[in-house]
Fold this protein.
Amino acid sequence: MLNKNTLFAQDTLPRLTVTNISNHILISWVNPYTYLTTINIQRSFDSLKNFKTIGTVLNVKNKINGYADTRPPSVKMFYRVFISFEGGSYIFTKSYKPFIDTLKVLPDIEKLTQNIVIPWFVPSTRVYTGKDNNVIISLPEAHEKKYSLKFYDENGSPAFEINKITETYLTLEKVNFLHSGIFNFQLFEDGILLERDKIYIPKEEKMANGIKEQRRPIR
């Protein structure tokens, strides 16, 4: 969270204020939302692609918040933010290039850099989380091709697998995953690896109570 004494004007999400302060890049914003679940900060040398996550905000519901990139590979990097909401929807902000600003009072950069760095991803177009947090499998050629799918938890342990997918559009209930978080998956076509990616299932109160009893294994 930004220091209250910071003499700085933040833009309002999904817009960002990205500032170069003594070669420290400050990404800051005012949060108008009450139903956020995730805010991840990303950077790239390119304004449109090759973005990588450099950190995530711990308290996403703070009204005024930000993140400090204290060791950017270049002061000409582009920055954007990934935002996910309750219900599974998400957006990427526009990309911003830092502008140089000389402030008399700097933000508390030490506090901002305590945010956790986690791996992130660009959602797959074939396997992804829907609005209700269930997992959608969209394979338009499923009637003609032989697809199979394997899911793993973050530690690499198998979660479950679907040996044969015959439907072009399939919904997996989130209770099959037992808990919220990131799950890795491998999609195969005729036994050959077609895609390796991740899905993210947001945390919900409903998932915390009685989920083990509700699980319906998929074969």
In short: Helices lie at 109-112, 211-214.
